[in-house]
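Table 4 source record.
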Amino acid sequence: MSALRRNNVHVTGTGGQAIVFGHGFGCDQHMWRFVAPAFEANFKVVLFDNVGAGGSDLSAFDPTKYSSLQGYADDLVEIGKELGLQQAVFVGHSVSSMIGALASITAPGLFEKLVMVGPSPRYIDDGSYVGGFTEVQIEEMLEFLDSNHMGWSHQMAPAIMGNAEKPELSTELVESFCRSDPIIAKHFARTTFTSDNRVDLKKVSAKTLILQCSDDVIAPLQVGKFVRDHIAGSEIVFLAATGHCPNLSSPQETVAAIRAFV
């Protein structure tokens, strides 16, 4: 099957250079609706769903392939090849930041620039490395998701989104989580939250921007600084936006930061 069909790819915009947007766990390309249109006048805008999300082909889900983030990165490379992309910009939210980084390593020349929104190369603390969670906390979270997908969604979404004064955003995230296929969601959650891509950061040669939110429980400040310190020449912008989803909670600030970089 064509990667464009498998990953529900949509292309808009009129620019010569492409900008590709990748979504985070439990979400789909719809989460970029306040950001992506701002680039249509100057870029070819590419939106897609990771396999298992949104309008992707669920039958293409392979537990072995997607047991590591490299499986998703390989899909991204395939999308780039089918569209003939070269020296594009990739904007990845959350786990897709690392997926984009892996794709840039796998296919040098595919992406000229990377924008990482709330990235984390490892969510679990390890010695002096602070990922934000202990191994016990991650296992408890995954067990909760495994036993009660709906309950997990309702409990986790507000914490991930933040912005308690905008409850409609948490509601949207809950609904997005609940639309996900439970079996695939559990698998992707384990792949995401047990991943460790710290050693890959030094292999990234694309010019990189990190967008770091304040009060982000998923990717705290120390993690953003770690990514900056381990990708040569990378920049970090500290957003006023709070929570883990500035593409929804503070789209104008997110657009401005990306636009200044690209």
